[in-house]
Hints:
This protein is an alpha/beta fold. The chain has a single domain (13-215), classed as Rossmann fold. It has six helices and eight strands. It has helices spanning 3-6, 15-35, 51-61, 81-85, 93-105, 160-193, and strands at 39-45, 64-68, 110-116, 121-128, 133-137, 152-157, 202-205, 213-215. The strands form two sheets. The chain has a six-stranded mixed beta sheet, covered by helices on one side. It has a two-stranded antiparallel sheet with strand order 3-4. A hairpin with a 4-residue loop joins strand 3 and strand 4. 34% of the residues are buried.
Amino acid sequence: MNNQSSLNHPGQLTTKFLEENFLNIIQHIDILLHRKSFVILAIDGNSGAGKSTLAEAIGKRYNCNVFHMDHFFLTPELRTAERLEEIGGNVDYVRFKTEVIDGLLSQSDFQYHIYDCTKGTLGQTVHVAPKRLNIIEGCYSMHPSFADFYDYKIFLEVDREEQARRILERSGPDLYQRFLNEWIPLEDRYFQGMHIRAKCDLVLNTSSPQSTGHVL
């Protein structure tokens, strides 16, 4: 496999990150798979830090399941002012726990639903077969409702200036304003209020070619 090409999304993960950290992550996964028959790995962190890109790269390396927290946005009826005041409340953690975590722990086939943000309803049904390695990626993946079920936890962070550049490149100026005024402040409250970074096994800054990671 060409590891560099698997991480070749514009502005998301640098070559330096690839060289210094990707193989280290793979080694950790290999150790876990040697010790255990069933592994769940979480990738949490800032918007624009490269969570989905890293999950995709791991998915190309292994025959694994990959789940995206973006598929568990709040439906309109759950998106109340009271709910958004709750730290970590900007995700349907109850549905994620019931549909995905409980499904994985059953070690049998299961299904879950993807939230359709264009319609504000649950849309496509995804059927999942058991696999040894399972990746949960996205902000709120380390929510305390299910964080204890993970075998390895990664936190990706990015500096504000680089975060803005990536989101603008990926999503455009209109959606960037929602990130800036709504989603990023909610993420920050979750990271700080629930001490997410400190609970992860590996923290990586993906901002620049000089970025490195460290184990907590």
